Amino acid sequence: MISWLSIKVHRSFSAAALTSGFGQVIFPAVLIVSGDAAATVANLLSHDLLVRLSLVAALVAVACHIIWTFLFYELFEKPTAGDDEVLLKIAGLR
Prior knowledge:
The chain is mostly helical. The protein has one domain (4-91). It is 81% helix and 0% strand. It is built from four helices and no strands. It has helices spanning 4-31, 37-46, 48-76, 83-91. Helix 1 packs antiparallel against helix 3 (48-76). The longest helix has 29 residues, at 48-76.
């Protein structure tokens, strides 16, 4: 039986992976021109929506990391019977 906690952790990981990839890797790679500040500024000014989406995606990723903190706190706050129980909880099998 999969618990609600493991489902939330999985969804949070998925959301953070997508938003981090777009907000912190792909969008800046498109906008920033290495060694040419003028071209970078021109890209930032001409792609206003892309800059905003990049910032929003990065903020969503940060929010997901904050959610992870609370979810992992709930996951590990109760004492467990042994190491195998912790592994089962992490895998979402308990």
